[in-house]
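Lecture 7 notes: from sequence to structure.
We start with the chain below.
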Amino acid sequence: MDQHSLDMLEVSLRKTMESASGPELDAALANLGWGDMLTEVPELALPLYFRLLGETGAHASILVDVVLHATGNTIGDTVELPLPFAGNAWVVWDRISPESLDPTLGGLPLRREEEGYPIRVAEARVAVGWWLVGAARAMLALARQHALDRVQFGKPIASFQAVRHRLAETLVAIEGAEATLTLPGVDNPDLTALLAKAAAGKAALTAARNCQQVLGGIGFTEEHALAHHVKRVLVLDGLLGSSKELTKRAGAGLRARGSVPRLAQL
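Predicted structure tokens for the same chain:
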């Protein structure tokens, strides 16, 4: 797919995600060729689709398709796959009864499970990483615009050094996470995906913290768009392992191995 076609697809996807979510969005994405893209060009599909989910605040069950495809199952199947969650917990993305939302799980159709079993999650971690990055960029955009619009002492708060430092720290974290997500991971895909998910989760949490501070009191209200993204990233960070847990796991693995593999050619 050339760049022009990719740009046109992004425009179409963004419009679709801004107007639909849940099962309605699932159907729309299927019509737009989601399954074919995942099968034929996953390196393009994952960043594009999941980043846009984060930026628009929509949700779709395509994460289940990523797991199904990685484990050799049929894309679109309604089989329930327990997914690891922070704190040694398990959740299932409910494709059959998506209206049954747990209010503590970021508005996503996730159902808590008592136990699960090991499945391949490397590709899914990359997907969730892009979802987190997209949500972090959405929060940064909200905070940046507020900083430009909000006037104190006769000038926009964007001119204040403390505000600019918070926005800059957020942007650096997001860019770093994106760089980690784009690593090829040829020699050690599981470790690369684990570190990428951890970096994305940390970046999104940094964005949530800094952007709430920039927005001030309004950033803590349910009415502001930031609240939706904050709740979403708190859940997405925990899905498939939190940034804190994955960082500890990576460190323990490297200590046991006694060496650090080369993940990127610098």
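Points to note: The domain at 121-257 is CATH 1.20.140.10 (Butyryl-CoA Dehydrogenase, subunit A; domain 3). Strands lie at 83-85, 89-93, 110-113, 151-152, 155-156.
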